[in-house]
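Hey L., structure's done. Input below.
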Amino acid sequence: MAENCRRILDITIPPEVVRKREEAITAQFQRHARLPGFRPGKAPASLIQRKFRDDIRSQVLQDLVPEYVEAQAREQQWETVGAPSVTEVEYAENSALRFKATLEVLPEFVVQDYTGLPIEVAEPQVSDEEVDRALERLREQSATYVNLDPRPLQEGDYASISVRGTSPGKDSSGVHVEEVLCEIGGPRTVKEFTENLLGAQVGEERHFDVAYPTDFGDTRLAGKTVSYQAKVLGLKKKYLPELNDDFARELGNFESLEAVRRHVRDDLLGARLRDAEQKAKSQVRQKLAQLHEFPVPETLVERQLDRRLERLRRQLTAQGMDPQTLALDWGKIRTSQREAAREDVKCNLVLERITRQENVEVSEVELERELQRIAAVTDQTPAAVRARLTKEGKLDKVTSALRIEKALEFVFQSAQRTVLPYTQSGSESS
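Output:
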């Protein structure tokens, strides 16, 4: 626990309070207990107390400990975080109940002036060359492939192949693809496939090994040697559509190629604007954290670390990788993320205070819009999402997150901006 967020309470509960709670719990057991020789609910309380002594005492602790901890925390005007740690319990018959509770509380701090924070904001632009490249990708996506008469494979051919690959090691699940298109000599084709398939005939099978470098883009293959069996199923020629108005109309609701160009440019610019804003808001968060010096509850840091690692797992899964089978040191990753998680928590605490100072509220329309976004991602209806979050007691957390996001937008809009050119990598130049 962060020392300045830790509070220790020595609590004494009067014996009469303990006795009264014991009697109430004994009565509950008495109503439901089935003991030999007694009808349900008719066993004497003294017998119930002897028979279920440990259960009754356990229930007394579960009832009274949090009740008294919360009462004293309210009296001290502390906002507690997580569950308290209870030690040194003294619980004897006909005596007061004594224990020590260690808990974490939200820190007290003064919100510094958050208006006019200096940030650097990129000014995105889209060149004609970038639009041309995007149009070329659209052509590639609309390409058609026509079967050719069998002949030996040549550079530039498109071969339809089936692939089986095996790699030593118990963690390897192998590779099995019934049919995939391979461009012989293509820039994205692994060179060993080109070298070993050149000259192959339709129906012929080639065997070869591929040693993937440790920095290979697909982490499932990085650093491994895979033995492949590749069989040529067919030979194809690629046809690209011409860039003209007919192509534009085939893409959708476009009357001309120029309309497609405008749409592509707007899409590219919109994505870069969102990226630039996200980076600028990250600067705002960093500066808010730097402006304030106060301890952060470790409970909140651990929760934020859990969220960061879960987000990483989802990203890996979205890329087609199984996080469970990757040779990743999750403990090391967690340690490397700790300071960033601490900064996240600190900034969120500051933003939460700003929501109070600026009276930031979330409307029902804004909440419904967020529920619709969650519904689209999780393939549910907004009503189902609302019902689930309400049942799990998490709807308030969604509203709180929206308030924090609105506070961040408020600080962002008041920031003092220096406009910089947008680089090809999507980051600001320095």
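The first helix runs from residue 15 to 32. Residues 144-239 form a domain with the Chitinase A; domain 3 fold (CATH 3.10.50.40).

-- N.
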